[in-house]
From TrEMBL:
Keyword tags: Membrane, Transmembrane, Transmembrane helix
Record-annotated membrane-spanning stretches: 33-51, 95-115, 127-147, 168-189, 201-221
Protein name: Integral membrane protein
Domain of life of the organism encoding this protein: Bacteria
Length: 459
């Protein structure tokens, strides 16, 4: 609630109240800081868009924290993961999160300090005060993410181990990605502040400044991609699918050809250019599969069978690897033991087989289908083999750059219901996580009611 309404209103109220509360000082402030109004408005506008999304994520996780019906005690920890109840939060991550937030708060006070007491600040601080404040803001945001990770990094982490011996390279890439993002932020906002200077710039200076901003956006985007690659180097895998406790995970089935699209970084406009100026620096750096893993996390950790021979696994679902021959029986066992099975529709032979088996092995409450950017002819082909699917939706279109366009869930009598993830223009509503929330709400409600009635977590 705070992230969705209170914080954006406070930011807006503070922005309006400054000239009203200090009318005698406002002319001096404006004369000195007017060139920073556009960058500051960009950051505040981004926060107003970002904070409601975070509020929705927190409310979703808090509402749908599925528990073991057999325990009966709501005070118990969620019964997910291999070893049952969750472990205590990671103390080191909590300490790191608090340190980052305190350091960030200290850095955000630098612009105010420069404004109030320029005589006590070093010479290099005054021209860079705004950038130092923005750096502090990002430190606060990442500190909050670290605290969230400390709270949720529990036994949901399946019994797994690093898939690569060079997992340490992921840490180095993480540092490089952070530096790229910081450099990109400095170039873009620095160029923007130069263009707002009350000076007559020559045409070549304006041209150079503009391309500096574009370069900053490119460097920032590369930093986001490096973050994703760093996570891939640190990915983990389940050594044996038989180690998975029944009812402790969500099984994710899809065609291996979907991996490259569903695990790619969401592209955004260059920061500092048009709409990207507002959202570019605060947009999620997660892939579509990471969004899926996060939105399904209240039911259990997302696990998937990895593509044979892949050297650098994708992130999102925790991978496991099956033999090329005889993989069908382990997949059947994984379906039976899963708390929920999510399947992305496709026309490949393996995906069609998995869909048919899911209809035979699973109750309707434990199956959710995702509709990717299929052609209508492809959907009709799938429906001909699986008559339980609903009619082809009119909004299905391969021209839309959306990874998941719709969600199908089933009532107790296998009556299908379809919910779009795209709007009337074919665009994702906000980001993928919040766009899928209303689509998955009925499915989550059905799972909760089914488990309360039956008292079982699978089958």
């Amino acid at each position: 609630m705070l992230c969705q309404t209170v914080f954006p209103l406070l930011l807006f109220g503070l922005f309006i109240a400054i000239p009203l509360l200090v009318p005698d000082r406002f002319p001096q402030w404006w004369d000195r800081w007017w060139r920073y109004v556009v960058p500051l408005s960009t950051v505040l506008g981004g926060l107003v868009m970002w904070l409601p999304q975070q509020g929705k994520r927190l409310s979703w996780s808090g509402r749908w924290e599925f528990r073991d019906p057999a325990q009966g005690d709501p005070a118990q920890e969620p019964a997910t993961g291999v070893d049952g109840p969750a472990r205590p939060p990671h103390t080191r991550l909590r300490v790191l999160g608090y340190v980052m937030m305190l350091a960030g708060v200290a850095l955000t006070t630098v612009p105010t300090l420069v404004l109030q007491r320029p005589d006590i600040t070093p010479d290099w601080v005054e021209p860079n005060g705004f950038l130092i404040g923005v750096t502090g803001l990002f430190s606060v945001l990442y500190g909050g993410k670290t605290l969230k990770l400390a709270r949720t990094r529990q036994a949901r982490e399946l019994l797994s181990r690093p898939i690569r011996r060079d997992a340490w390279l992921g840490s180095l890439l993480w540092v490089a990605a952070w530096l790229c993002c910081l450099v990109g932020l400095t170039l873009t906002l620095g160029g923007l502040s130069v263009m707002m200077e009350p000076l007559d710039l020559a045409w070549w200076q304006m041209f150079l400044t503009l391309w500096t901003m574009v370069l900053g956006g490119f460097v920032f985007t590369q930093g986001r991609k490096t973050f994703l690659r760093a996570r891939r180097h640190r990915s983990r895998f389940v050594p044996d699918h038989r180690h998975l406790k029944a009812g402790s995970y969500v099984l994710y089935l899809r065609s291996f050809r979907e991996d490259e699209q569903q695990t790619a970084l969401h592209e955004v406009p260059l920061p500092g250019m048009g709409g990207g100026a507002i959202t570019g620096f605060l947009v999620s750096g997660a892939s579509a599969e990471e969004h899926l893993a996060e939105i399904l996390r209240p039911v259990g950790p997302l696990v998937a069978v990895g593509a044979p021979g892949e050297r650098l696994p994708h992130v999102g679902a925790v991978r496991m690897y099956l033999p090329h021959e005889g993989w069908q029986e382990p997949v059947r066992e994984l379906m039976r033991k899963s708390r929920l099975t999510a399947l992305t529709l496709g026309t490949s032979e393996g995906t069609m087989w998995e869909l048919a088996e899911a209809f035979q092995l699973l109750p309707p409450h434990r199956l959710v289908l995702f509709i990717p950017a299929l052609k209508k002819a492809e959907y009709q082909r799938i429906r001909a083999a699986a008559p339980r699917l609903p009619e082809c939706p009119r909004w299905l279109d391969t021209q839309h750059r959306t990874v998941i366009q719709g969600v199908i869930h089933f009532a107790a009598d296998w009556t299908p219901a379809i919910a779009p993830v795209v709007d009337d223009y074919g665009n994702v509503k906000s980001n993928l996580f919040t766009a899928m929330m209303p689509a998955l709400l009925p499915a989550f409600t059905a799972i909760e009611e089914y488990e309360k009635e039956t008292g079982v977590l699978y089958g």
